Amino acid sequence: MSLRIEPGEAVGLVGPSGAGKTTLLRLLNGSQRVTSGRVWVNGSALDSLSRTELRRVRAGIGFIHQDLCLIPNIRVAQNVVAGQLGQMSLARSIREMVYPSRRLVERVYALLERVGIGEKIFERTDRLSGGQMQRVAVARALFQEPTALLADEPVSSVDPARARDTVDLLVRISREDRLTLCVSLHSLELARAYLPRLIGIRDGRVAFDRASSEIHDDEFAALYDLNSGTPDA
Amino acid sequence: MSAAVSVDELWRERPRSGFIRGSLIVFTALIFGCWFLVDVDWADLVSARRLSNLERFLLEIRPFPLHELPWSWSVAWQWAREFMGQRGLEAVLATLAISLVAIVLATLGGALGSLLAARTIAAAEPYLPESRAPSRTALWTARSLVASTRAALVGLRCVPEYVWAFLFVALVGPHAWAAILALGLHNAGILGRLGAETVENADPAPLRALRALGARRSQIAATGVLPLVLPRFLLYFSYRWETCVREATVLGMLGIASLGYWVEDARTRGHYDTLMLLVVLGALIVLAGDLLSTVLRRVIRRA
Amino acid sequence: MTLPVARRFPFRTPSLVTAGILAAALWGYVHLELRLGDLVPGSGGVTVAAEFFSRAVSPALVSEADFVPSGTPPLLLNAANAALLTVGFAAAAMGLAIPMGFVLGFFASTAWWEEDPAGARSRTLRTLRRMAGPVVFGSTRVLLAVLRSVHELLWAVLFLVALGLSNAAAVLAIALPFSGVLGKLFADLIDEAPRSGAHALRAAGATNSQVYLFGLLPLALPDIIAYMFYRFECALRSSAILGFFGYPTLGLYIRQSFSSTNYGEVWTYLYALVLLVAVFDVWSFGVRRRILA
User: Fold this and answer.
1) Domain map (residue ranges) of chain C
2) What is the spatial distance between Cα C51 and Cα C70, in angstroms, rounded to a whole number?
3) Other C-beta atoms lying within 10 Å of the C-beta of residue A124
4) What chain B residue is nearest to C151 in terms of C-alpha separation?
5) Residues in chain A whose Cβ is within 8 Å of chain C
């Protein structure tokens, strides 16, 4: 597999479950090691980095996990601050997680306002609804002040209307902040509507990699191996 | 500017539990404040006098046959085996026997207590729909029964085993019964409380059905409640048996024939080598008890 | 008549386990050569027992001793003081046991050494790191087992013969086994906590210690706090018992008053102990119910 994502680009990953979308995203932020080949992020090959350097790379990439991976029994603000742990010393992180400074709280609040749940800032995270938690996860990734945003099936657990909102939010924010965006999506319809470039993945290979407007329906059908019927949306 | 104001407001209105906060503050205050209450002199613990005492102790925990001789595992092993043959094994068996009889009695007492302390089965009319209101006297009898059982259970568990044992040794003499009663009463208090919770949380639907069929209170308890709560009771049983074994080892220090008796015996005679061996033996019994009850729990959980 | 719960009854394993337990207890009964008749105290015992239990309703309010040395505080004040010291010893021991438990619990959990999937640059370093984890983990687990399997009273006896009577030794005697128990529990709770939050923090560039502190610890904390309160209650009982070895807690006065047959005083001290433990019992139960809800 060989592919290249330019800074500031918005890319969608599509393909059946088990095709390797999650693995690809994990390789991109060094959560998983390549067995062969190389991953270059911002000009450095990940497998040649020391732990500290690798952490620095990770700190610069926001990652939104499929099951959100929030800590349920702490406040929303703390979950968001946790996004910036990679840039803090241990002592400072203890201070900011236990009793966050005014400056940080205001930044968290501004960010939460931006994703639409500012009033929930001091709520316990597990008291929020599914859609709200998703926004917390987005806010945590953005709080890293990343150069790139990776999202692994961010909408797999919410209803279609909310899914649309979330993808819209991701695309809008990455455009405003000039972030590189790479989203894996199950829903073709959403992917085509919001992402200018789509990469189809099947059995760990790139099936196609083109502007989404140029991709034919039968290519999608082949990707999901559906000879009849519509691709699942 | 408006954002700052509303963050403050949100912070003031943040959800929080005053009770937990207060408890943690009191807890922390206790832990730091206690050093003013108790006169602890750490320096004294390593003073010359204490250290020479320690040195003597370390010399004397060498097995007796090896006194002032080079260390030899075979001699030490021989010595330990001899002791085990004479007293050690009997002490271990007595400790285990005491813990077993005690925990079974405690469970029986606890089961009885939990039935009397559960608001569901000890109600005036257990498992009846609200429509048929019981008489006022029946209501008050049931309520006072539950309340007094609960108070008795609190009393039982708040007196430590060792204190119970001390009192019983003084009353019935240094007999195994003293240890059994002590462990039994304390654990009956604990198991009764835990059991009452279990009984109250038992699924009421089958019990209501039994009641509707005309079963009496004792029949509901025996055929309905018991099978429902038995697995959980066994779990609690195994946890408490673990501590029973642990406590049974030391109750002997009051003169009852468990491991502790020989500990106290070795201490008064100044046989520190035997004392050390017994402490190791006690630790092994506790570990064996832990292991057995862990296995027991696994068996119960799998069922 | 078929009972609606009849099909639940077979419950084979619990019944078998129950039968096994009863058989074991029967063995114990026979082995100890117990007879119900031995439960009845001898004639002298009956008098003492009657005398002792009759005082349950009338605990002493002032000292019952024939000769009270001048300068001795009044009985109730003394009981309050002993209760306070009982709390003091327990709290001091918990103050040591909790931090020790946290440190030992950290090393006894698998969470801190489970390898960062994409870790160090060199293969040797990665192998070394992979080996160091299990070794430290295993030896800490052994240490915890040794600490908690020796009963606090045996620790107390050991300290007594090795160092002599010392408040510091009494505090240590409770603190050592308690840190063993707390450490094991902390480790188990941390390891049982879901790891997904931790993965997210690691993916955001957090260090291992940050992952542990903010990804795993918060999840285990409610249980840890509830358990700490329960252990405090246990420490209270242990601290009272240390009085029997000569430390100035409630146990000392229970023993003293009993041996000088001032049974009313014994009940005063017993009630002080029950009250003290009951307060903590209710408190820890309240914390547990609220925090785990």
Assistant:
1) 75-291
2) 28
3) 17
4) B246
5) 29-33, 46-51, 54-60, 62-63, 65, 67, 69-74, 78, 82-88, 90, 93-94, 97, 140-141, 144
Architecture of domain C75-291: Orthogonal Bundle (1.10)
Q: Which is nearest to A162 in space by CA: A183, A133, A142? A: A133
Rounded to a whole number of angstroms, the distance from the CA of C164 to the nearest CA of chain A is 42
Average pLDDT over residues B164-190: 92
Cα–Cα distance between A41 and A5 in angstroms, integer? 10
Residue C1 is predicted with a pLDDT of 44
Give the domain ranges of chain B.
79-302
Test the C interface: residue of A69, A73, A95, A97 with most C CBs within 10 Å: A69
Mean pLDDT of the residues in chain B = 89
- By DSSP bridging, strand A40-41 and strand A44-45 are antiparallel
Tell me if B267 and C161 make a contact (CB, 8 A cut-off): yes
Give the contacts of B102 (CB within 8 A, at least 6 positions apart).
Answer: B179, B180, B181, B182, B183, B184, B187, B244, B248
Chain A residues with CB-CB distance to B6 below 8 A:
109, 118-119
Q: Which two tokens stand for residue A158?
A: 């919410």
Q: How confident is the model at residue C9 (pLDDT cuts 50, 70, 90)?
A: very low
Residue B83 carries which side chain, given as an amino acid letter?
A: F
pTM tops 0.90, yes or no: no
Give domain limits for chain A: 1-60+147-233, 72-145
Test A124 with B15 for CB contact under 8 angstroms: yes
Sequence-separated (6 or more) residues with CB below 8 Å from residue B265: none
**CATH code, residues B79-302:** 1.10.3720.10
Q: Please report, as a single letter, which amino acid is at residue C8.
A: R
Residue C140 contacts residue C107 (beta carbons within 8 Å): yes
A127: chain B residues, CB-CB within 8 Å: 15
Q: Look up the CATH number of domain A1-60+147-233.
A: 3.40.50.300
Contacts of C180 in chain B (CB under 8 A): none
Determine the Cα–Cα distance for residues A73 and C225; give it in Å rounded to an integer: 14
Tell me how far apart the alpha carbons of residues C293 and C110 are, in angstroms, rounded to a whole number. 27
Mean pLDDT (chain A) is: 86
